[in-house]
Structures are given as C-alpha cells and as structure tokens.
Amino acid sequence: MAVPARRTSKTKKNKRRTHKGLTVPGLSLDRETGEYRMSHRISPSGSYKGKQIIE
C-alpha cells in the first residue's frame, strides 16, 4: 500500500477544499404577504404562484 512521501500542508489541504463552502439559499419577496421566503416553496400563508394550495 502506498504511503505519502511527505505531510500535506495546511495550505495545500485548504486549497483542495475550497469548493466545499456554504451556499446562500435563494430568497424571494412574497408579493401577497410581503415576507421573504425560499424560492420554489409554498409561502407561510399556503399559496404558491398566486394559487391557494393549503387552506
């Protein structure tokens, strides 16, 4: 089994992991309630795309 020739430095390790960051969720302003909500999800009032989904 292969063994690394030398230790991986902190810089090299962190450069390899740069793509593993957190992403900001897509928020949009709800026209009916005026509150922010996540995109492509039902609003807290139960409507989606102007239609009442949940009573």
TrEMBL record:
Keywords for this protein: Ribonucleoprotein, Ribosomal protein
Q: Please list where the region (Disordered) is annotated.
A: 1-55
Gene Ontology cellular-component terms for this entry are:
ribosome
What segments bear the compositional bias annotation Basic residues? 7-20
Record bears the keyword Ribonucleoprotein:
yes
Under the heading SUPFAM superfamilies, the entry gives: Zn-binding ribosomal proteins
**Keyword field contains Ligase:** no
Question: Which residues fall in a compositionally biased region of kind Basic and acidic residues?
Answer: 29-38
For this chain, the family text in UniProt reads: Belongs to the bacterial ribosomal protein bL32 family.
The molecule here is called Large ribosomal subunit protein bL32
Species annotation: Listeria floridensis FSL S10-1187
